[in-house]
Amino acid sequence: MEPAMRIASGDIVVTETLDAAGTNARGERVADRPNPMNGPIHVAGAEPGDALRVDILRIDPARGTGWTRSALSANVLDPEYARNLPPRDRAEWIIDREASTVRLEAPEAALKHLVLPYTPMIGCFGVAPAGGEAISTATSGRNGGNMDYRGFAVGCSVRFPVAVPGALFFVGDCHAAQGDGEISGTGIETCCEVEIRLTVEKRRTIGWPRGELDGRIFTVGNACPLDQALQHATTEMVVWLKSEYGLSEPDTAHLLGQTVRYDVGNVFNPAYTMICSLEKKWLPERPKTA
Amino acid sequence: MEPAMRIASGDIVVTETLDAAGTNARGERVADRPNPMNGPIHVAGAEPGDALRVDILRIDPARGTGWTRSALSANVLDPEYARNLPPRDRAEWIIDREASTVRLEAPEAALKHLVLPYTPMIGCFGVAPAGGEAISTATSGRNGGNMDYRGFAVGCSVRFPVAVPGALFFVGDCHAAQGDGEISGTGIETCCEVEIRLTVEKRRTIGWPRGELDGRIFTVGNACPLDQALQHATTEMVVWLKSEYGLSEPDTAHLLGQTVRYDVGNVFNPAYTMICSLEKKWLPERPKTA
Amino acid sequence: MEPAMRIASGDIVVTETLDAAGTNARGERVADRPNPMNGPIHVAGAEPGDALRVDILRIDPARGTGWTRSALSANVLDPEYARNLPPRDRAEWIIDREASTVRLEAPEAALKHLVLPYTPMIGCFGVAPAGGEAISTATSGRNGGNMDYRGFAVGCSVRFPVAVPGALFFVGDCHAAQGDGEISGTGIETCCEVEIRLTVEKRRTIGWPRGELDGRIFTVGNACPLDQALQHATTEMVVWLKSEYGLSEPDTAHLLGQTVRYDVGNVFNPAYTMICSLEKKWLPERPKTA
Amino acid sequence: MEPAMRIASGDIVVTETLDAAGTNARGERVADRPNPMNGPIHVAGAEPGDALRVDILRIDPARGTGWTRSALSANVLDPEYARNLPPRDRAEWIIDREASTVRLEAPEAALKHLVLPYTPMIGCFGVAPAGGEAISTATSGRNGGNMDYRGFAVGCSVRFPVAVPGALFFVGDCHAAQGDGEISGTGIETCCEVEIRLTVEKRRTIGWPRGELDGRIFTVGNACPLDQALQHATTEMVVWLKSEYGLSEPDTAHLLGQTVRYDVGNVFNPAYTMICSLEKKWLPERPKTA
Lengths: 290, 290, 290, 290
What we know:
The structure is a homotetramer.
Chain A lengths: L4 E3 L4 E5 L20 E7 L7 E11 L3 E5 L20 E7 L4 E5 L9 E3 L3 E6 L13 E2 L2 E3 L10 E5 L7 E7 L16 E10 L8 E4 L2 E8 L2 H20 L3 H11 L1 E4 L7 E8 L11
Parallel strand pairs in A: 1-3
Antiparallel strand pairs in A: 2-14, 3-13, 4-12, 4-14, 5-6, 6-7, 7-8, 9-11, 9-13, 10-11, 12-15, 15-16, 16-18, 17-18
Organism (chains A, B, C, D): Psychromarinibacter sediminicola
GO molecular function (chains A, B, C, D): hydrolase activity, acting on carbon-nitrogen (but not peptide) bonds, in linear amides
Protein name (chains A, B, C, D): Acetamidase/formamidase family protein
């Protein structure tokens, strides 16, 4: 796939994402694959073995509406309970830019005017995977993808493992708000204007996405079941603590065992997402810059 | 099993728990089963179909030391990574009641004097299970048990489904601190003086533990794998929202889909624990008292 | 629980089991727990660290009817597919002792007179578990229990790990026929006259049930998900090959890697069952008798 | 990817596969991706919505040696057991075409001259996936792929769902023998001369691979964990019985519940494989040809 844009390391990109149905900010259906992405963006100098750092600077609403599905996904409920589920109808939400809220428009629901804060996040982003694969944007892996983690919000920085020259970054599927797990199969699906900075970190080899958010460092595992996603994320954290902070296996057991936190990304897509995080204040001083 | 104590609904109980190895506050080994419990406590008037509400009022250190294991559990790491794991040695921690801290005593570790806040929690509590079962306190189920959730802390209230007359409440296995998942197979294992209030809520039939904490309501699922624990917890939340708050299936999809949070209890015991929670501020006024 | 019968090692027992609903051969409801068992049978001389060998000699029909459920269990189907499932109605089957067949009586079904061979099996058997637990007969563990494996048929011999003096053997829940997985939540549930020989094998310490069937040795793992049941069964086989046949880790990889077979017991109960088996003809001569 | 060959529906193809390491029958390393495939083969007339039927006519050894790994995979053993695993060394096997056997050459092993029958199978085959994906041949999905099922042997016929014009069939990674699960991470990896017939079945829409083998029909599910693979395979079987044999949901519960068999493909790759099968003799006459 030819790059849609070529930039230098450290450049800031502003792009307007489509929603998960391929609809743009004017309400026009302009793409038809699930979770259409913007990109790929070629970042000069990125080579396999490097990391691509993405700083999320801004996620502004690009239109005044979003949509969700009106039924929980069967796979997050006891199997027999799925017999009770309603149709997966589409519900509309109004995004109020002034008030920074989203408001449900569901006249027949008890919660018909539920108002939630606008808490935007990037549902799907990452880099080209290794081995020449072209994976569906419905799923995720070491290269990122459709992770649907509410922590991928303004102020978060994430690193992805570069697998091909130029990294070939993509981004899309923004949500105006979303609970853990994306358990109705959608966040509040909308179009956003996203501002991000893309920086190549040379020779920083990582196995899975790693990031920083709210005074914490975190790792991401994408797999099914959740247990395996948790294994990937925890192993990546152990490897990180060992290679960059010099912690031994017993040290990581002491530190992670008593302070680790896990967050759930999506449990809806083919690969689920688990985040493993640690407060920076417990970390020893880093022996080398990164 | 004969009740160790009989109380009235609403009574406050103060009890000193043993640590997970059966050692008491004086350092004497006084029990030899895993996670020895205090109890059972018979609460007058509790009948099947009721809930037993437990308010956690106080968890004070009953001795000045705790212990942990110095290796992560193999099951939270990528399977082949387990080849790298060190022995499951025991590490000691000093509990400082004045400073309200725990301090690692591991001379050869890089983190040899790691100091963490004293953030005590109850590892294992619940009521007698249904059907005459006598389940190991190493595991958990609808009746509670060894859930190892850091949220079972002071200020938390939890309801358990009463399955036998008198409920037969038990409590033990307190931790001076613990990360999510109990991923080294231990929290900081110690003895605590626990003060709790036990109240029978008549005809409040629940399927799994439910509780309140920090402005949130929550449900608990205990099963393996994590996905199934998440299914139990989510289904219990849906049933709760429907039966006590009058929310329809689409309403629960709107509310939970965009605001739910999941926390991980232990991923070490035979049954893993997942917590599903919701901020109270999003709830409609309750149609009936409870 | 007091033994219902006391026997010597090597004795043959003939017992008439109830069906899964607690109904006897005369159609009388005589017990009300799920999968009521016959027993416990105390076998003289059995001590923790021994194995109890059970030879299944005969499973004859004790009544002329059996029953099943008319819907597949939601947990063996794609989660959203459960929306399509019919009610879990009860269907009746006629057991023909002369012809050795079972015949469906479902007038409105396309398969209304489906006739299958009578291929009886024991759904639930085992010994008292360790640690004073009294586990529901709906589930299973190291001690056996509700495993629902079609291989537990005439000619099969199984060993269970003795955890309490006398072993306290129990048996019940026979099926006139059953596919893998017990995926409709039932086999053809009926009452049978079961003839078994119970023999204590001194100092033969095992971790999970082990047996022999049709020229193969096998091990059983009971857990959820299936992957974990497979892990338990495979590990027990490796331990067996090492301790009794002297095979090294590479030897077990060569032998099991290229010849192992897995069979699925139930995938319906709280713990699923996986069988790991190996043809005896590939085994080296055993260094010691057992 | 450009087709390597274009054929008509019904044509027979003879091709010599590389082994999993990319080595050919002369022992030359000629490809470097995992499980290099032969193909893609464009079959005239195949369109999305059709099925591509593959009849396996012959799998002859193309060289006199094969290789395996000498350690079981950590993920098929209890997590802590992985501490005991030996290195994943490579072991050599001699393929004797006259005797139709494979013989281990491991001088230091107790089983140093283990001789097994030559029972060849295709480890990896299928068609191009939907949606423009280019998935690694290390994994599998609706389109087939690296399934490592010992039933993919001479006499088996399999249908794959065509997702792109021409189907774009690929085949490779043959094993001279393999147990269930590919639990040492390899079968006996070698090069084979494979003879297959490829036939387009117009307008036969299927969701997952379906086939016939030894008097049975079967479906294939590829996913992780095994439970999900089992769900996919079972659902595909239910859909098949309904659409082609006219069976209602209760009929499928009666028939599958009491006669279904599950076989395990690999439990080593990112997606595990489960086969759901049924004896043809229990099927009602088919209302339409296929």
